[in-house]
Write a sequence for this structure.
């Protein structure tokens, strides 16, 4: 009979999100702790009684006690599930560390913390081989012991580890190297990995589940948990389930010749009400006239309030200073000012001078176009939406 | 704007209602002589448009009131644009305002009228800001005009509108204003610092606050991390120290060290016993040796005892003989000393008696001299006492006599005299104080005189008073004093007194000398001399008794100090010889006693030894036994010494023993320290755990990360503000640069219009410099630029009028014509320039109304009429009069 479990990782509960304002940071933090209920829902739907969390349950060792209590209470409330938590590099099992505090607070009966590398019976015929991190930075592969770990013959061995696997384009956060051959060398039916926040199979029967709640603008399919059906000693079927509450989008568009923004506007429109839980990092490339830039700014001003957060990157956007636009051309004096500013943009000796001159030119264009309102600082190119 | 009629009542000199009707709207001239009321009308017109009816401003309204009181009423019909209006105001008493639309008939009153008037006149096209510029009071024409701030803005705007009309939709001012407003939201006007309450300042403050918080949070996190590392290290240390194997190793080390110490101490005790045995054996050996030596000595002593006894007996006999000789010598010395002492005592007694007798004799001689001196003193004192006149009495007599003489001479000198010279046969007829007066004699008039003239009568003569009377009084007083003094002393003359005084003085000198002599002989008096004499007599008696035994008593002169000293030396030498003899005898007796004691001792020793060692065999056997005992005890002592040495060589001494002790201390200390360290580590671990628990509960680490992220975000917000403000400042600077060219364009039309008008009046081309505030800064004619204030009064007045004309023309060209009103403005112009000015006014009146108030009816008014101007007159105000 197949054994079903849920593989998750990198909850990063209590991540501060200090770059956001208080309200948004709070919403993002709450979404992470709220993922527990959504995972439980998936587990029950998938017929799994066990949830493996492959490290970085908490964002830091210094997570406040009340957050620990809330997390444990939420886990305990899902009493039909057993939660197996693995210390990762963010919440390593150090002396006097976070897991000792968790122990002092008191673990619910359905929560198991694996602070030692030793086989544990997960269910009849199923053994769990956890590889906790006991320091933030482990230089050697913590799964190496699995090769020599002794379990009864015929037992399906499931590995649980946290670290980075080299070779697929990006390493995770932890400086802990993991072998992609571990499932094979240790005879694992499945190796549940954490640290890489996206969902990915890195080797046969070796998966990163990714974080259940995205926390950055990366196109690596975050926001999933994996339902794993272990069918034999070296057999596992993996089914991803989306559990993310917030949508973190990263888009790069080109303007000028093509209207790349229209697609993004359409995408946001398609989100409907969910757009207020969407965070968009938008990198704009191309070349615009001054008037075109002003028009683009107006469209972005209209787009920003619909999103929870808009992170604009316009460093790669070139503003043409040769065409200052009709509004400025219509007034010779203003046109003279615009040309002087354009010359300053061209002659800028430093990025700061360049940015100041370009912003002055933008402001002139906006004012000439009758836009008398000052822009809300922060809604430009700094990666934050207007408050 | 166009003025059509002006009406006044109870204004200045116009107590009765007057009106000036029929303004043409072109060049209108109101001519009249001085004090015709032209300026009154001008002031009333300005007040009507500029001053609210409720005002009680003394300068603007109060001056309108007639001298005998009243409520000034002013009315004006005017056209503004296409609409015609009538404005009526009454000031001071029962103030009122009414604005009537003469086309529709609609009326506004009171504040409504004032508000509407303000809106109409003060609006974009309103004339109000230009009235001070274009409505020129008498005397003000002389001043080259500069528009007020509001007027300047209005002119500027009008010119801008003209420029904009030519160049398109100019927006520079709006953009500049908006940039200024936006910049003002962020920075202070002057220094460009962040403005209080601005978002920029808030962003700066936020960064500062977050930087501080981030630093604190980072430090707290660092402390927490350090504490965590310390906890790990403490736990490792505790595990190592508290390990059972480590504990057992520490206990074994202590045990081994203690065993080594115990063994060393036992060996030391054994050595002590061996040393004691060695010492005891040595003592026994020493005793045996001493016994052997003593026995050998006794045997030798027994052998020499007879010889020593004989020698001692001989010594006793010799010392007894010597003692007897010394004793004899001591007796002789004692006798010599007694003789010398007696002679010395006799000499001392003789000397004392001789001295006593000499002192007594000298004292008796002195006493006799003193007695004689005392007697002489008593004699002189008696002689002085017998004289009876002293210095003071004698001096009083002399002074009285001198006073009599002085006053008598004075009276004689100061008093007049009477002299009678009789005729022959008549002598004696005159009697003075009853006595016939001889003729030819001077009679002093020093007293009242009575002259009896026989057959004639009596003549009473009274001398004058004053000084002569005073002199007479003093004379009498002196005579009385002299007579009393002589009587008291019992003498007849002053000379007797003086002779007695002389003698007294001689005796007093002698008495002083006698007293000095007496004091030198008996300074303490004769009684004291008597007492001293008695003491000397007693001393002599005593000396006599002491010297009773002196052999040569009869001749005391031979006793002197030298003899006494000589005899004393002899007595001392005899005493010293006696002492020497006594000491020699004592020493000899000691020697004798010692010799006797030696003899007794030798005899007793011989007896004892002979009793103990009666035979040579016995002596020899005893000596052999003692030698054997010495050999035996020496062997035992040597054996004990060898045993002790062997033990000493085995025992750890010095550094070796200290090393064993140190080993125990080290092991014990290590054990104690380990236990203390275990306790400390447990406390440290508990403390660190508690601290970390607090840190974790407070989320110290998470807070540091969060604040660091917040700081980054805040710094980016601040940077955004800096970029934005930098952009606004740059924009402002570029706009200002562009605006400079614009300003020049703006003032140009004023200068251009002025330059068009100038040749008509100044008969020459001229260029005018207009400043930023539209003030006329200079004029250039021909050779060079001329300062306005250096021009002649006439030229300045004319330029001032031309400048006003230029502004009026500018406004008219902009579609907002405003009347130019001149009150007696052309007073300095010569005929030629007056004509030119009039031509310019006529030309100007084609574009806007020109109203000229003038007192030159023949000159200005006539010329104006010739140029087509309408000449107005002040008439009754029939409507009000009715």
């Amino acid at each position: 009979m197949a054994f079903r479990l849920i593989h998750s990782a990198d909850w990063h509960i209590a991540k501060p999100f200090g770059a956001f304002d208080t309200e948004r940071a709070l919403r993002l933090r709450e979404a992470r702790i709220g993922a527990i209920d959504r995972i439980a829902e998936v587990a029950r739907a998938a017929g799994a009684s066990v949830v493996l969390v492959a490290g970085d349950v908490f964002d830091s060792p210094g997570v406040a006690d009340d957050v620990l209590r809330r997390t444990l209470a939420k886990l305990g409330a899902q009493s039909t599930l057993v939660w197996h938590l693995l210390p990762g590099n963010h919440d390593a099992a150090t002396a006097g560390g976070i897991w000792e505090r968790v122990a002092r607070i008191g673990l619910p009966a359905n929560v198991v913390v694996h602070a030692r590398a030793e086989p544990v019976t997960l269910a009849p015929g199923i053994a769990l081989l956890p590889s906790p991190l006991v320091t933030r930075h482990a230089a050697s592969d913590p799964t190496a012991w699995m090769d020599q770990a002794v379990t009864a013959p015929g037992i399906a061995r499931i590995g649980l580890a946290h670290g980075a696997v080299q070779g697929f384009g990006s390493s995770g956060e932890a400086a802990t190297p993991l072998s992609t051959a571990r499932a094979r060398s240790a005879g694992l039916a499945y190796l549940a990995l954490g640290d890489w926040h996206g969902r990915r199979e890195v080797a046969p029967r070796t998966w990163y589940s990714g974080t259940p709640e995205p926390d950055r603008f990366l196109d690596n399919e975050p926001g999933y948990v994996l339902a794993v059906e272990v069918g034999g000693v070296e057999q596992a079927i993996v089914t991803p389930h989306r559990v993310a509450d917030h949508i973190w989008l990263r888009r790069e568009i080109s303007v000028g010749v093509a209207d790349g923004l229209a697609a993004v506007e359409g995408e946001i429109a398609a989100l409907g009400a969910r757009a207020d839980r969407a965070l968009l990092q938008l990198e704009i490339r191309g070349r615009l006239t001054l008037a075109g830039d002003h028009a683009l700014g107006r469209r972005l001003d209209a787009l920003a309030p619909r999103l929870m957060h808009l992170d604009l990157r316009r460093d790669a956007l070139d503003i043409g200073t040769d065409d200052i636009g009709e509004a400025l051309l219509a007034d010779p004096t203003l046109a003279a000012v615009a040309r002087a500013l354009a010359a300053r943009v061209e002659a800028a000796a430093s990025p700061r001078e360049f940015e100041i001159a370009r912003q002055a030119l933008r402001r002139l264009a906006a004012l000439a176009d009758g836009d008398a309102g000052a822009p809300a600082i922060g809604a430009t190119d700094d990666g934050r939406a207007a408050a | 704007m166009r003025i059509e009629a002006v009406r006044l009542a109870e204004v200045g000199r116009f107590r009765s209602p007057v009106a000036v009707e029929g303004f043409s709207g072109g060049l209108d001239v109101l001519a009249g002589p001085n004090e015709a009321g032209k300026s009154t009308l001008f002031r009333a017109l300005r007040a009507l448009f500029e001053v609210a009816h409720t005002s009680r401003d003394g300068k603007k309204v109060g001056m309108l009131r007639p001298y005998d009181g009243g409520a000034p009423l002013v009315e004006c019909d005017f056209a503004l644009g296409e609409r015609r209006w009538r404005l009526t105001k009454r000031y001071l008493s029962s103030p009122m305002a009414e604005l009537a639309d003469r086309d529709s008939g609609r009326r506004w009153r009171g504040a409504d009228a004032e508000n509407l008037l303000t809106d109409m006149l003060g609006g974009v096209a309103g004339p109000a800001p230009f009235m001070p510029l274009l409505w020129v009071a008498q005397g003000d024409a002389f001043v080259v005009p500069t528009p007020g701030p509001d007027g300047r803005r209005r002119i500027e705007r009008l010119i801008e509108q003209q420029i904009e009309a030519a160049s398109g939709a100019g927006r520079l001012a709006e953009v500049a204003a908006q940039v200024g407003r936006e910049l003002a939201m962020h920075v202070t006007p002057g220094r460009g610092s962040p403005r209080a309450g601005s978002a920029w300042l808030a962003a700066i403050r936020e960064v500062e606050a977050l930087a501080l918080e981030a630093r604190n949070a980072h430090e707290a996190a660092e402390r927490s991390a350090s504490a965590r590392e310390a906890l790990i290290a403490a736990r490792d240390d505790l595990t190592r120290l508290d390990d059972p194997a480590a504990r057992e190793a520490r206990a074994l080390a202590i045990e081994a060290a203690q065993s080594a110490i115990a063994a060393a101490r036992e060996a030391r005790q054994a050595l002590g016993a061996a040393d004691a045995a060695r010492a005891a054996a040595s003592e026994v050996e020493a005793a045996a040796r001493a016994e052997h030596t003593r026995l050998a000595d006794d045997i030798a002593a027994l052998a020499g005892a007879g010889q020593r006894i004989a020698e001692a007996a001989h010594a006793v006999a010799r010392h007894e003989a010597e003692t007897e000789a010394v004793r004899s010598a001591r007796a002789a010395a004692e006798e010599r000393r007694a003789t010398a002492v007696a002679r010395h005592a006799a000499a001392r007694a003789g000397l004392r008696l001789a001295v006593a007798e000499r002192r007594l004799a000298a004292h008796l001689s002195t006493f006799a001299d003193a007695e004689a001196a005392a007697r002489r003193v008593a004699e002189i004192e008696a002689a002085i006492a017998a004289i009876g006149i002293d210095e003071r009495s004698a001096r009083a007599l002399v002074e009285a006599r001198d006073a009599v003489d002085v006053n008598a001479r004075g009276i004689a000198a100061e008093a007049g005299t009477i002299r009678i010279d009789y005729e022959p046969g008549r002598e004696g007829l005159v009697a003075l104080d009853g006595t016939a007066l001889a003729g030819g004699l001077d009679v002093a008039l020093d007293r009242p005189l009575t002259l009896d003239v026989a057959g004639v009568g009596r003549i009473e003569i009274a001398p004058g008073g004053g000084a002569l009377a005073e002199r007479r009084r003093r004379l009498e007083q002196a005579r009385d004093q002299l007579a009393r003094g002589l009587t008291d002393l019992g003498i007849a003359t002053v000379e007797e007194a003086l002779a007695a005084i002389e003698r007294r003085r001689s005796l007093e000198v002698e008495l002083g000398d006698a007293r000095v002599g007496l004091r030198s002989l008996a300074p303490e008096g004769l009684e004291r001399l008597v007492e001293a004499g008695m003491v000397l007599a007693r001393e002599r008696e005593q000396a006599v008794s002491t010297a009773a035994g002196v052999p040569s008593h009869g001749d005391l002169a031979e006793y002197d100090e030298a003899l006494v000293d000589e005899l004393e030396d002899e007595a001392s030498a005899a005493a010293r010889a006696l002492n020497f003899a006594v000491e020699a005898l004592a020493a000899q007796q000691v020697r004798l006693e010692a010799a006797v004691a030696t003899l007794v001792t030798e005899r007793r020793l011989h007896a004892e030894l002979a009793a103990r060692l009666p035979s040579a065999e016995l002596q020899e056997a005893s000596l052999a036994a003692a030698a054997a005992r010495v050999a035996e005890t020496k062997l035992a002592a040597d054996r004990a010494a060898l045993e002790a040495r062997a033990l000493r060589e085995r025992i750890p001494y010095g550094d070796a023993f200290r090393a064993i002790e140190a080993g125990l201390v080290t092991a014990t200390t290590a054990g104690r320290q380990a236990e203390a360290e275990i306790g400390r580590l447990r406390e440290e671990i508990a403390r660190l755990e508690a601290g970390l628990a607090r840190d974790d509960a407070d989320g110290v680490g998470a807070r540091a990360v969060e604040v660091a992220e917040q700081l980054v975000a805040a710094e980016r917000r601040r940077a955004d503000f800096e970029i934005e403000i930098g952009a606004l400042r740059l924009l402002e600077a570029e706009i200002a640069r562009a605006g400079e060219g614009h300003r020049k364009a703006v003032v140009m039309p004023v200068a251009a219009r002025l330059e068009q008008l100038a040749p008509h009046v100044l008969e020459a081309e001229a260029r005018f410099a207009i400043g930023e505030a539209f003030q006329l800064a200079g004029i250039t004619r021909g050779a060079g630029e001329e300062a306005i204030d250096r021009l002649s009064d006439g030229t300045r007045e004319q330029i001032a009028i031309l400048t006003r004309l230029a502004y009026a023309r500018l406004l008219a060209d902009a579609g907002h014509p405003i009347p130019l009103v001149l009150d007696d403005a052309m007073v300095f112009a010569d005929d030629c320039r007056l004509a030119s000015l009039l031509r310019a006014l006529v030309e100007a009146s084609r574009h806007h109304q020109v109203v000229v108030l003038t007192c030159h009816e023949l000159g200005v008014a006539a010329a104006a009429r010739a140029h087509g101007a309408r000449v107005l007159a002040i008439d009754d105000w029939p409507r009000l009069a009715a």
Remarks:
- Chain A touches chain B through 54 residues (CB under 8 Å).
- Chain A has a mean pLDDT of 88.
- The radius of gyration of chain A is 26 Å.
